[in-house]
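Possible race condition, two jobs.
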Amino acid sequence: MKTDTTDIAAVQVRLWDGIRKRGGTGMLGLVGSRDHFQPMTAFVERDTNQIWFFTRKDTDLARVVDGGQAMFVFQNDDLQACIGGALSLAHDRERMDKYWNTVVAAWYPEGKDDPLLTMLRLDCHDAEVWLSEGLAKFAWEIAKANATHKIPDLGGRAHIEFH
């Protein structure tokens, strides 16, 4: 899928769609922390530029000071992104109900009433997004680059500022 990286609105749509369509699993971590990033499933709310995550109250990420800076790193076959923003605890029952599914339920044996269950909210500030046209284009560009000794054209990069 070709997206003009100068069309920031189109890049943003492709970013949110990419996360939503691919199950939303990426790596979430705190900026400046000595802790490693952790795999988390993202639930995108594109109208508010927020990403929600289920977590347990006893995890490293849940111990974050409200508003701590975080990054969510996501990639699939034709999109790579690093999204930055403020991370906060947000025990939001409405969103728990909205995003609850069988995969989430597997991590919380006591269900939505599990006393350790909570949510994190990432208020997105900005993102760096790299776009490509998929594996066939990748293979073609690599072969062409090796034959011509020129750098492959694998897509573009865009910076998004969320408002």
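Job #2 (started ~2 s after job #1):
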Amino acid sequence: MQRSEGRGTTQMRPVTITRRYLKHAHGSCLFELGDTKVLCAANFAETVAGWRRGSGLGWVTAEYSLLPASTHTRTRREVASGSPSGRTHEIQRLIGRSLRTVVDMGGLGGEYTLNVDCDVIQADGGTRTAAITGAFIAVHDALNTWRQAGKIAELPILDYVAATSVGVVDGVVCLDLEYGEDSIAEVDMNVVCDGKGRFIEVQGTGERTPFDRGRLDELLDVAAEGTAKLVSLQRRVIAEDLEVFSERA
């Protein structure tokens, strides 16, 4: 099969990470994966939901949105309809779960909420996985801002987290599906892993055909390699304190 830009079946689209993209956010990141672009911002609020009060623990939560001009046809703002769609609700819960897995809720300095907003400004497949990968950078930088403000002594980060998509297109396992591939994939899967390569969440569907255990193992192997590449990029960006980083993953 032919992929855009001559990509190999296990090759990811070009990745660009722009940190501190927003002036007022505690942490922010513009994460670009090919033509998919997601703006991630993380901000602390000095409160937690009622069910969390009195626990002494903080919380990390996420919101996700497709901006109106992010897709081929205008996407209506969900605030106009009064509530997020089922798809949006599912995605933002996925992002929140993924981030909470690698952040120590007892290390946020008290009963504070870290709100993470992931706004898709251009969609070409893999928006939820791009949101998770970019959100981790925003969360890291927000926690660093929190530390510099004297709220915490050290970063309560337990590990890295990154996500990628993988699927079967024309009978071939492919990493990081763009929209044209995702729309015709026989099998579609989103995989979230930590920095040790352990699985945090796996979402897989036989869109057009069932798949056996052998195919599942192949998909997971390719996805694990993809998330490992993304984690290595995150590590480099943070270790070298890079404002802008661009590279083929």
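Residues 197 and 224 are 6 Å apart (CA to CA).
Logs attached separately.
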